[in-house]
Amino acid sequence: MKTSTGARAGQYAALLAYLVFLALPFLWLISIAFKPPRELASLHPTWIPENPTLDNFRQAFDEQPLLRAGLNSLVAALGAAVIAALIATPMAYVMARRRGRLTKAATGWVVVSQAFPFVLLIIPLFLVLKNLGLINSVAGLVMVYVVWSLPFALWMLAGYVRAVPRELEEAAAVDGAGRLRTLVSVTAPLLAPGIVATALFAFITAWNEFFFALVLLKTPEKQTLPVILTHFIGAEGVADLGPLAAAAFLATLPSLVVFALIQRRITGGMLAGAVKS
Q1: Which of the 8 DSSP states describes residue 235?
Q2: Distance from C-alpha of 194 to C-alpha of 245, rounded to nearest angstrom
Q3: Cα(90)–Cα(158) distance, integer angstroms
Q4: Which DSSP letter does residue 247 get?
Q5: Vertex 82, ends 248 and 128: CA angle to 5°?
Q6: pTM of the model
Q7: Which of 22, 123, 261, 272 is deepest in the core (most CB within 10 A)?
Q8: pLDDT tens for residues 219-257?
Q9: CA pair distance 1, 144, nearest whole angstrom
């Protein structure tokens, strides 16, 4: 009993330490975002600003087109989320319901593809988009984000499909419904929470992505928020710390809100595939 209690206490202590480790950079970012230049240059920085100010936020909007970049990020993220969810739903259904070597090979490929580094993919993707005339376009970036988020979306959504009782689909088949009708009328409504979680996951992935946007978008008018944030760093590597922190804080908020909404659903999707009906 004592051993069990001690192990549990150790687990909670490790979890608390991990949460503190994750939270400290964000809290420090918020602190910097509201500090005036005099406090930013102080040799003895404090966590709580002594004279909080919004000047960093005003300067950030004056120096860089944050609203336009935010709109580009929103369009790219929403487009990737919707398209990934539409493609992943029927594919995940087939992967979960069909048994065979081809399905197993597809599932294995989905898992293995997550190990591919960005650098390995960027050259073929760049050439494909160049041939399609989609370099330096948000539409081309959406295509890349869909390709990148689709494997994990398939894996997650397949867990939700497996959690749907087969008896419901068999009853629909007895009534004369085909596979497509069964998917649309019976399975898809039950998958709605999983589809929403999958779409929101794709949204977060696209909103926070930096490398593909940096390589594929050339003009400032097309660039997304993560790329625009690098403009606060000068040619000599000196960062305009206050406005950078303010802009980074604003860019982080949508991801935090969306993740807070879907974190339970993502966990449920991961566990659903391990439960047999």
Answers
A1: T
A2: 34
A3: 10
A4: H
A5: 85
A6: 0.80
A7: 272
A8: 888 999 999 999 888 767 777 888 999 999 999 888 888
A9: 53
